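INFO batch 0412 | record 1 of 1 | parsing
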Amino acid sequence: MKLNYRPILTKTFELVLLILSFLIIFGPMTSLLLWSVAQKWYWPHPLPQEISFAYWKQALGIEKSLAIGAVSIIPAFFLSLGIAIVTVIIAMALAIPAGYALAKYKIPFGTFVMFLFLMPNAFPQQPIFVNVLQMFTRLGLAGTVPGVIIVHILVGLVFGVWITSATFRSIPPSMEEAARSVGATASVAFFRITLPLAAPGLLASSVFVFITSLDEFTGTFFVGLPFVQTLPLTLYSSSGYNMQFASVIALILLVPSILFMFLIQRVLKAEYVGGMG
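INFO prediction complete | emitting C-alpha cells
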C-alpha cells in the first residue's frame, strides 16, 4: 500500500507558514509588551526577572520619579492629537474638492496633478524636508506648531486626494444625473446624493491622514525641533537609553493605528480601492 504524503506535507507547510506569520506580526508586539513591564531583564534570561508598571505610571503622569529616567508623555500625546485633528480637517477640506474634480472632470494634466500629490512620499523625505526647513526658517515657521501642521498636511494629502478621488470615481455619474433631471442644482446633488454615498470612503481617507499625522516623524524632526515635541519625537529621544519607556510609547502609538485599521476594514469598500489604479 502506497502512502500519499502530499496532504501531510501540505498541512505541515501551512502550519509552518502560520507560525512564521504569527511570529512576524505578533513577535515584535510581544517583545514591546514584555519590555514595557520589565523592571529588570538581563541576558541570558528569556523573560523579565522583575515585573513592574512603573514606566507606565510615569508615562501616563500617575507617578513622578527621576530614578527610572522616564517622563510624562501626556503633553506630547495631546500635542500630537491636536496636530493630527487639525491636519485631518485642513487636508480633507483640500482633498474633497480636489478629489471630486479629478474624478468627475477631465482636467488637463490630471495624471500629473495626481503625481504631484504623491511626490512627498515618492522620494526620500530627508532631502525634501531639509529644503522645506530652509524655506520655513525664512518664513518664521521653523520650530512652530503651524509649520509642523503644514508638513503633516503635505504628507497626508497623498492619502486624502488618492482615496477621495477613487471614492468619487466609484460612484456612478447616473446618480447625480438623476437628481439633476428632477430639478436639483449641482450643489444640492453633490451634498444630498454624492457626499452621503462617498462618506465611508471619505472616513477611511480621514483615518489614513490622521494615522499618518500621528506617526509622522521625519518632517516633525526637521521642522519642529527643538520646540515642538510630539509623541514620535519623544519615542526617538528615549529609544537610545531607555528601552522600557520607549516600548510604552510605541504601544501607545500602536493603539489608535490598530483601532482605525479595524474601522477601515469595515468601511473601505473594494470599489474604492479599485478606483485608485
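INFO post-check: The CA atoms of residues 13 and 224 lie 49 Å apart.
INFO record closed
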